[in-house]
Write a structure and sequence with these properties.
232 residues, nine-stranded mixed beta sheet, single chain, alpha/beta, globular
């Protein structure tokens, strides 16, 4: 399983709220957020880990240069206009096989993540298995429309009657999803949520995998919440 981490955001809301540490290096229970992901991925059958960081966060690059990783760690240093464009910059490392992509500030329980990866590795019918949750603590959640069997038939920006899940920001995908990404970028589309809609429109087979809870660390107040949530 190939893994990828998008860590190219500026973390501007954290900075505005007094958190001076670059977001990927924010400490959660004794681990940096990016270090935690690297550890979890290596414990879940990683064959490589690819990461993109922005050009302004030189401390993050220095941190990653010093990381001892048991699998190849591919680092791209580039500022991008959106997380979808960051994904695009990592695509060459993710072709030919299954991969899992997440943003650096996505906090989840390790046992749920392991079950998620095992389910994706075991199912060769799917083009994508998308992490979802019914826990909503997001300013602009992306609602995931599912059928009874948890197959995904749409992504919606606002609540609709019967909505159960929102996107958890963890994407397990296969090579056809890279083709959709390249076509979407060439069409001038931006934002990950529009890319996800393009996956559905392209006819790829996507299924939702419910997590009990997923937290994004966007604000200073999210740090203690995340520490309590993922405490080992």
């Amino acid at each position: 399983m190939k893994y990828a981490i998008i860590a190219a955001g500026e973390g501007s809301r954290l900075v505005e709220e007094g958190v001076k540490t670059p977001k990927p290096l924010v400490n959660i229970n004794g681990e940096t957020m990016i270090g935690r992901l690297i550890r979890i991925f290596t414990e879940n059958n990683a064959e490589s880990i690819s990461i993109i960081v922005n050009q302004e966060m030189t401390g993050v690059k220095e941190y990653l240069d010093a990381v001892s990783c048991p699998v190849p760690l591919n680092l791209v240093v580039k500022s991008t206009p959106s997380s979808m464009h960051s994904f695009y910059e990592l695509r060459s490392f993710l072709k030919n096989g299954k991969f899992c992509l997440t943003t650096v500030d996505t906090m989840f329980r390790e046992d749920e993540f392991a079950s998620y990866i095992q389910a994706f590795e075991a199912d060769n019918r799917l083009d994508g298995l998308m992490a979802v949750t019914d826990y909503i603590d997001d300013e602009k959640p992306l609602y995931v429309s599912t059928r009874d069997d948890l197959s995904i038939d749409g992504f919606k920006d606002s609540y609709y009657e019967g909505a159960r899940y929102i996107s958890g920001g963890i994407y397990a995908l296969t090579s056809p999803a890279i083709n959709v990404l390249e076509n979407t970028i060439e069409a001038g589309v931006s934002r990950m949520r529009n890319y996800q809609r393009a996956l559905v429109e392209s006819g790829l087979i996507l299924r939702a995998f419910p997590f009990g809870k997923i937290i994004d660390v966007d604000h200073a107040g999210d740090i203690p919440k995340a520490e309590s949530f993922v405490k080992r």
